[in-house]
Amino acid sequence: MKIDVVSIFPEYLAGLQLSLIGKAVDQGVLDLNVHDLRDFTFDRHSTVDDSPYGGGAGMVMKAEPWALALEHILGGGSPGAASVEQTVGADTGDEEPAAAGRPILIVPSPAGPVFNQRIAEELSVADHLVFACGRYEGIDQRVIDWSGEHFDLRPMSIGDYVLNGGEVASMVMIEAVSRLIPGVIGNPESLTEESHEDGLLEYPIYTKPASWRDRDVPEILLSGNHGAIARWRRDRRLERTADVRPDLLAGLDGLDKHDRAILE
Ligand code: 6GU
Known about the structure:
The chain is α/β, with parallel strands linked by helices. It contains nine helices and nine strands. It folds into two domains: 2-188, Alpha/beta knot, CATH 3.40.1280; 195-263, Trp Operon Repressor, Chain A, CATH 1.10.1270. Helix content is 32%, strand content 13%. The strands form three sheets. Strands 2-1-6-5-7 form a five-stranded parallel β-sheet. A two-stranded antiparallel sheet has the order 3-4. A two-stranded antiparallel sheet has the order 8-9. Helix 2 packs parallel to helix 5 (141-147) and helix 4 (117-123) packs across helix 6. The radius of gyration is 23 Å and the shape is elongated. 6-chloroguanine (6GU) is lined by residues 108-110, 156-159, 161-163, 165-166, 169. Homodimer. Specifically methylates guanosine-37 in various tRNAs. It is found in: Cytoplasm.
């Protein structure tokens, strides 16, 4: 999968070079490029923002740097994209269009639909994701509308609270998506019994020692009875979900008689 990120704070995304995602990049499973939006400006101050038409607080990100950055990612063809090619140091320069279909452009915004595990799964099979990290009050709507002619446009929020910009939200989405790509996580089985994979939260887990500060590991986990352990774990998942996220249970249809008895 190819992932491009555009930001005025490319250093923010440095954390993606660490751990499993960094390894996937090193191994070529992920082709991750971070672009500095200011590389697509031509004035002395590398201006990316201006005051809002109609008045109001804060600043708005200008359309043209965004269009040039996105054209660069699309493989260019425009004079602006061509002339800017040499000035971009953070990427390899050999950009190519996605193998099939249009790239998906994710625009992090608290005004978007809320990202979740289903969307992460959907995005994990894409060829090319582009993240446009806005700052200030947001990006000029005209370049968002224009981008819809070239990309599969997906505004996306990560929850009902406000962040200062799209960088952290993009990192959240990139991590959630890329760990679902085959080869990014060492043991794919660790993906199957996770919270949100099947609508239930995960069961509590324990490791050695069997007794720690007078607290014992639940006996059944030491029994070797795999059927009983699986049932116990499902029961704990049901209880935990009912306790902290009853909203998730409402949307579940795979509950049998035993499941319902646990929830009584
Ligand atoms: Cl994606 N961006 C910003 N700026 N704030 C947010 C968000 C995104 N999701 C929740 N709050």
